[in-house]
């Protein structure tokens, strides 16, 4: 995701993630209360897949405060000390900029917890065995560790020609993504199984899709527009202008897969060692719905908002690494123009689907 404070930063475009975190807070709180903790004065927490800015810390603040109250009773009033570790899918400038708000928070409220960062990706072991009491991850696990190798085989049934994502792609392409998604989630869970103490808690919040929906997104999701229609049109503009060849366009793929609850359950059961306390599909109203009239009056502002939104996700860094900075700027200019001329989601409300899961670490 894009770091920094500019118009395309994650912090200024993460209103969907913020809404999902707010919607799942009660579930997170209940999960913490369900933990069977004995006396503890040294609690270790990990936030894996951090977002830039305040959203990174709001969920951690909730975890720390609920645990503080819970342990104050267990410990007979003794205040525990908290250590919080942060990691991301990949090392980037966004990872380092995520720590900037900490100074202000410490000045405002006093030091609530000690913070550390690890630059290693969360699809691998990060901590010693039985080290962590709580692990939270938000809006990160939908991103794959890599593009499935099958999808990069030109001319094969899994070659995703003419598309940047898998919405509307051939069945073989979607299956390759689903296979990689399962592998990634199982690996993530196996690592956390080793690191979380028995009785500890794992809380996952990830973009998902409703059960029974074969496509990645429903018709009322703006993601269909963001990652499919506008993305493919902008790539085609570069091809038509002679800036890139078709093969170069076809070789770019977005490593994003939206699981349903059955796929998440299958990965947890395959891993073992976790008991699902609760799993819920959340339907989050798109905050951009409230700006429809504004965007209808000023389509160019809508185009810029959509281009900023897609850049704030993992996408800008991937496009820039693929095309270079100059052509990337051209790409997003074309994207903004295409968005400004698309009225599909200016006359109806849009929603995001998120899967929230709380699981307790158990012996088996």
Automatic annotation (TrEMBL):
Keyword Transferase carried by entry: yes
One Pfam assignment: Methyltransf_7
Annotated GO biological process: methylation
Entry-linked InterPro entries: MeTrfase_7, MeTrfase_capping, SAM-dependent_MTases_sf
UniProt entry tagged with the keyword Magnesium: yes
GO molecular function: metal ion binding; S-adenosylmethionine-dependent methyltransferase activity
The entry's keywords: Magnesium, Metal-binding, Methyltransferase, S-adenosyl-L-methionine, Transferase
Classification via SUPFAM superfamilies: S-adenosyl-L-methionine-dependent methyltransferases
Protein name (Swiss-Prot/TrEMBL): Gibberellic acid methyltransferase
Species, as recorded: Brassica campestris (Field mustard)
Primary gene name: GAMT3
